[in-house]
């Protein structure tokens, strides 16, 4: 099912999360100033214009704490669990309800609105849905477009000169640590909470260690010729010399001076052979 699909990585990066929250905050501020929801008309004529703007900004920033806490929880959950589309939708629903509840309490306790709490809550949910869902939709479409553009640029570059492709390796926080020419990369090896990147440099094989996981690299580097072949290994299929049947299953021999042998798990055999033949 679509709802069980893993959420695209570009929706849960720290950078895009910050952009989304910032854009939503600006939109929410403009929305309150223009449409005057949440009992806004009760105090619109009682204060000066600059006081109104400051008060509106305070209300928006206070309400956005709900979104901020939600996204912090989502990013922390991502470290141990995959975020599916269904989970992402539930996070958004929880944000709408929580913020709607916040604005309902604001109208009752601060503005002394005497209307029915149920009516105020339903009205707040309606306004909050607009405040959150419109900027969310805009940013999601923008992130998706940027991701597609990035992938197309990579394909065009690879088509022009495949040997010039450089593979970027980032740590678990998204910080770039090293870029390696595709033709020089041999394989990745999992090492507890780190990944050893083995590559060719100055007539020798060198290793660069980064705090990350093979699982993350599978998603982040899906457009590069890196294929998972084992629980602990992923190989650059451009530098696979031989795939042979051994006593314990298939083995890969890397096209290097030392001809390193990499084991292949049965669960990865079909996909690996498919990639090699492709």
Helix-strand layout with pairing:
Layout: H1 14-35, H2 49-78, H3 85-110, H4 117-160, E1 166-170, E2 176-181, E3 185-191, E4 194-201, E5 204-211, H5 214-220, E6 226-228, E7 233-236, E8 240-246, E9 249-254, E10 261-263, H6 266-277
Antiparallel strand pairs: 1-2, 3-4, 3-7, 4-5, 6-7, 8-9, 9-10
Helix pairs in contact: 1-2, 1-4, 2-3, 3-4
Unreliable spans: none
3D shape: elongated
How many DSSP E strands?
10
> What is the H-and-E element order?
HHHHEEEEEHEEEEEH
Specify the number of helices: 6
Helix content: 40-55%
- Distance between the first and last residues' Cα: 27 Å
Q: What is the mean predicted local confidence, pLDDT?
A: 84
Main sheet characteristics: 5 strands, antiparallel
- Strand composition percent: 15-25%
Structural class based on helices, strands and sheet pairing: alpha+beta
Label this structure with key terms.
278 residues, alpha+beta, OB fold (Dihydrolipoamide Acetyltransferase, E2P), five-stranded antiparallel beta sheet, three-stranded antiparallel beta sheet, 6 helices, 10 strands, elongated
3D structure, described in words:
51% of the residues lie in helices and 21% in strands. It is of the alpha+beta class and 278 residues long. The chain folds into 2 domains: 2-156, no CATH class; 165-277, LytTr DNA-binding domain (OB fold (Dihydrolipoamide Acetyltransferase, E2P), Beta Barrel). The strands form 3 sheets. It has a 5-stranded antiparallel sheet. Strands 8-9-10 form a 3-stranded antiparallel sheet, with no helix packed on it. Strand 1 (166-170) and strand 2 (176-181) form a beta hairpin. The longest helix is centred in the middle third of the chain and has 44 residues, at 117-160. The model has no long low-confidence stretch (mean pLDDT 84).
């Amino acid at each position: 099912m679509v709802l069980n699909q893993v959420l695209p990585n570009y929706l849960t990066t720290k950078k895009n999360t910050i952009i989304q929250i910032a854009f939503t905050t600006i939109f929410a501020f403009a929305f309150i100033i223009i449409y005057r929801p949440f009992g806004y008309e009760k105090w619109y004529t009682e204060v000066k214009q600059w006081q109104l703007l400051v008060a509106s900004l305070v209300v928006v920033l206070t309400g956005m704490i709900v979104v901020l806490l939600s996204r912090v929880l989502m990013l922390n959950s991502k470290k141990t669990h995959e975020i599916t589309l269904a989970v992402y939708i539930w996070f958004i629903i929880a944000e709408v309800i929580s913020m709607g509840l916040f604005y309902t309490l604001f109208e009752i306790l601060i503005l002394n609105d005497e209307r029915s709490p149920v009516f105020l809550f339903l009205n707040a949910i309606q306004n909050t849905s607009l405040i959150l869902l419109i900027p969310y939709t805009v940013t999601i479409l923008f992130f998706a477009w940027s991701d597609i553009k990035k992938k197309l640029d990579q394909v065009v570059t690879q088509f022009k000169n495949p040997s010039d492709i450089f593979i970027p390796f980032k740590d678990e926080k998204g910080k770039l640590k090293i870029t390696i020419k595709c033709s020089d990369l041999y394989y990745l090896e999992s090492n507890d909470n780190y990944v050893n990147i083995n590559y060719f440099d100055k007539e020798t094989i060198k290793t660069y260690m980064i705090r990350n996981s093979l699982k993350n690299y599978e998603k982040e580097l899906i457009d590069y010729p890196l294929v998972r072949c084992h629980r602990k290994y992923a190989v650059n299929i451009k530098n696979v010399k031989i795939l042979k049947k051994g006593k314990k299953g298939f083995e890969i021999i890397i096209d290097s001076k030392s001809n390193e042998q990499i084991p292949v798990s049965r669960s990865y055999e079909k996909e690996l052979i498919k990639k090699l033949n492709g």
